[in-house]
Design a protein that fits this description.
It is a single chain. By secondary structure, the protein is low in regular secondary structure. The chain contains two helices and four strands. The protein has helices at 2-21, 265-270, and strands at residues 30-31, 34-35, 221-223, 241-243. The strands form two sheets. A two-stranded antiparallel sheet has the order 1-2. It has a two-stranded parallel sheet with strand order 3-4. The longest helix is centred in the N-terminal third of the chain and has 20 residues, at 2-21. The radius of gyration is 25 Å and the shape is elongated.
Length: 272
């Protein structure tokens, strides 16, 4: 009996040693030599199709990584470096990207609905046809980003920078665009109906054919802005600064101009 107990103890000890040597079940997961944990160094990692649901990759270096078709549901990428990464076809429900660097990343057609992208760097990222409805983009940088056809309806972009961004045909209905910088951005054929764009900067922005009906542009900065054939019905331009707007064919019925500043205020009153 004693000998059997001795052999059993040795067997258990052997299993424990083997478990430790192989990383055990409690250690961080490793996929293609990338350790899945916060602050991991995995630049250029090949993680296509990987199951990273619920993983904590905050502050991770995933520069240039491939995450196509990966399950990133609930994954924490806060303050992570994903610049130049490819996430095509990835699942992003409840993922967190607050403060993440996604500059130059491939994010076209992805579903970011309700996702936290606050203070993220999305400069030059491809977000064409992406779903960003109700997303948190407060303080985000989207300079020169491609958002053509993207759905940003009811998203919060307070304080975001979208200078020279491509928003052609984008949906921004009822979005919070307060203090957003749209300088030289292309918003032609976009939908900003009912949006809150108080204090936004539209300098030299293109809004030809855009729908701004019922939007609030109180205190906005409008200089050299293009509104040809735009729908400006019931737009609130109270306290806005307006200079040299191009309004050919724009609908301006019901525009509010109380306290409007600048030499271009009268142009809205004179437009048909």
């Amino acid at each position: 009996m004693t000998a059997r107990r001795g052999r059993a103890r040795l067997l258990v000890a052997g299993v424990l040693v083997l478990s430790v040597a192989c990383g055990g079940s409690t250690g961080p997961k490793t996929i293609n030599n990338c350790v899945i944990q916060p602050e991991t160094e995995c630049a250029g990692a090949k993680l296509a199709g990987a199951n990273l649901a619920g993983a904590d990759l905050s502050k991770a270096d995933l520069n240039g990584a491939t995450l196509s078709r990966a399950d990133l549901s609930g994954t924490n990428f806060s303050a992570a470096n994903l610049s130049g990464a490819t996430l095509s076809g990835a699942t992003l429900a409840k993922a967190q990207f607050a403060g993440a660097d996604l500059s130059g990343a491939t994010l076209a057609k992805l579903d970011f609905a309700g996702v936290d992208l606050s203070k993220a760097n999305l400069a030059k990222a491809d977000l064409s046809d992406a779903n960003l409805s109700k997303a948190d983009l407060r303080g985000a940088t989207l300079t020169r980003a491609n958002l053509s056809g993207a759905d940003l309806s009811e998203a919060n972009l307070t304080g975001a920078v979208l200078s020279r961004a491509n928003l052609n045909g984008a949906k921004l209905a009822k979005a919070i665009l307060q203090d957003v910088t749209f300088a030289k951005a292309d918003l032609s054929e976009s939908n900003l109906s009912g949006a809150n764009a108080r204090g936004a900067n539209f300098t030299a922005a293109e809004l030809d054919g855009a729908d701004l009906s019922g939007a609030s542009l109180q205190g906005a900065y409008i200089q050299g802005t293009f509104f040809a054939d735009a729908d400006l019905t019931d737009v609130d331009l109270s306290e806005a600064f307006i200079d040299s707007p191009a309004l050919g064919g724009a609908k301006t019925k019901g525009v509010k101009l109380a306290g409007c500043r600048g030499p271009g205020c009268d142009a809205f009153g004179a437009a048909p």
